[in-house]
Amino acid sequence: MTWTRAFREVLRSGLKIEETRLEPLLALRTAVGVALVIGPALWLGSPAYAASAALGAFSAGGATFQRTWRPRKAIALGAGAGLALSTLVGYLAAGQLVTFLPLLALWTFGAGLAWAVGSTAGIIAATTVGSMLVTITLPTSVGRALEHAGIIALGGVVQAVLILLFPIRRWGAHRDALADALAAVADYARRLRHDPTARFDPEPLMTARDAAAVTPSQARTRPTVLHGPRGLAERIVPAIAALADPDVGAPAEGPGRDRARELLDAAADVLDAAARSIRRGTPVEVPPKTVDLLRGDEEHEVLEGPARQAAERLAALLGEALEIAECGNAHRRTPAQHGPAYVQFLVRPTMFRLLPVIVRAVRRELHHDSPVFRHAVRLAAVATLGYLIADRLPLGHGYWAPIASVMVMRPDFHRTYARAVARLAGTLVGVVLATGVVRTLGPDAHVFGALAVVSAGLSYTLIRTGYAYSQCFTAAYVVFLLGMGGQAWEQTVPERMVLTLLGGALAMLAYAVFPAWETPRLPERLADWLAANGRYAAAVLRNYAGPTRERRADMRSAQLASRKARAAWQEAYDRAKQEPVRPRGLTSREAEEAQEALKGFDRAATLMENRVPQDDNPFALEAEGLAKALETDTAQAAADMREHREPDWGRVEKALQVWEGAGARRPALRREADLQKRALEDLATAVSRTPLERDVGSVREEQRVREAMEAEGGGSEPAHRGG
């Protein structure tokens, strides 16, 4: 993608309206928290105290809207504590540039590294930088700084208390994650009716699994309905895939295929009904006709062999899902359980035990090629440079430039540039509108305080609609706070616009100078996914040769590792498509073909998983040799791909020949093994082009891009070669 086209995509993304469900009750509760600290601070203190209180309550409230599975009140308390600490530490070092600049650089570097823990931690850490830059201008002594820090922390406490006293859709995010997973499996069942070899994207199941991890205290209050359906969804996926596949399941045409389509449609209806029930907490409503279709008529059943086994297994799993959904929506909680033998939930570390996890996550990112490490370096450099430049300009409120940079910067190119555009547009509109209101109403601290609360509520309401639209009301909120403090708009509005533009420009320039492109890393991500897929396929095959409890656990662990590698590839691939960088190692066409090949390989392993023996009796001893060959060849092929060598599947071919020579036992399993071999051959075809072919493909790809842009009326320019 050229820079011109990349900028066009950035503009479109930055100003895009996201079609997400609004949460006005959550926004109202959080805005009330802001009002509860602004009002008393104005009445009992001063506008300066009210500004500190408003910052703490607003930032802590905004943190609770981030995507996280921890309790919202814990997030509010943590955000309030971080804001208070940054304010106090910043004030102690704010006397001289020689002391404050190193602190600012160190603090922003740490805020950048917080992305190693997750996006929520990174965003909250960025808000603490803003608190350090703004509120250190308010106190006049160490004692006053302590008071302001306490008031800021109080804002987080107020938000946490409101969450505790007025819960809204408790466990709602967890219910949504589980319901989305079931709905995704339902959609997959419907797609299989028309495309029997369709691929399944496991991302919703991964999200549901992440949501299922809870602390011991959460486990004691989690609704029963959030326990079993996720595991059932995991088992339903291979069952419907095996039923639909024409090679190992229902025949491609005839009454058997019609019966398979009926079952798939019924499965989709049941899963959708269970998803609605879990999401809303209402009874399950399934049409009687759907239940009759699942039961079938044994005397006139047209499915035979593996297809019939898959149909029976699917009906049993769906019945279990309905039973859990019906029982789980009663107002019951998980009984308290003690001892390691009774731990039946995925453990999430408590806030007090999170430190070692954070340390390990950060240490993994402390290398030059890490996107998180590069983001931390950019953040520290831009914050200090922006502060220095703004301090030398004949403008007040110089902290707005580094704040704008810190709040828009992300570890990847597209989001950084899109947020910079969105922040500038939102700030411009918000400041102009709020300024007009300030000039019309005249100085009145109480009126401006009320308007600040209203702006905060609107910002919260639109926080998931689009950054530009939320930022519009955030900018208005800041203008009203300044008006509440008695500062003339002429001294703030022009400065804010100029400094916001400066901060956004610095953020965009920093990424261009010190990027963290994903495009050059695509071959490595693909190799990681191949190796993980090979281990998963081998683990499935070993359960046929010697099924044991330990091997079933290894299979599940390998499956999770494969999904994690697939998610890492998908994220890198999606980012690479938005980067103005010429493909290196893999062209877009090669990457797409390789991705489809590995999805096919993963699908074959999923089909195998459907009939894995549940007892300890060997099912197919010949599968052990193929398992070893698959694991060895995929690991070696992954290493070859990193070194740009052609992969070789010699061991796999030899193992299949040995299997064939032993007799045609387990034909369904043998056909699934052939599907895996075919997928590996497709992968080799995708990545085994010569350098000349790759260069020609890259040139043709750029030519197609230029022609498409010319057809749209746009220009073109040489692709960036940075790395």
UniProtKB/TrEMBL annotation:
**Stretches assigned to coiled coil:** none
Q: Where is the composition biased (Basic and acidic residues)?
A: 691-709
| Membrane topology of the entry | Multi-pass membrane protein
Which residue intervals make up region (Disordered)? 688-723
Per UniProt, the keywords (alphabetical) are: Cell membrane, Membrane, Transmembrane, Transmembrane helix
Report the Pfam families cross-referenced here: FUSC-like, FUSC_2
Q: What is this protein called?
A: FUSC family protein
Q: Membrane-spanning regions, if any?
A: 21-42, 124-142, 148-168, 417-438, 468-486, 498-517
Q: Where in the cell is it found?
A: Cell membrane
Primary site of residence: membrane
User: Source organism's superkingdom?
Assistant: Bacteria
Q: Which organism is it from?
A: Streptomyces atroolivaceus
Give the similarity note: Belongs to the YccS/YhfK family.
Q: Which residues form the Integral membrane protein YccS N-terminal domain?
A: 83-227
The organism's lineage is:
Bacteria, Bacillati, Actinomycetota, Actinomycetes, Kitasatosporales
Is Ligase there in the keyword field? no
Q: What sequence ranges are listed for the domain Integral membrane bound transporter?
A: 386-509
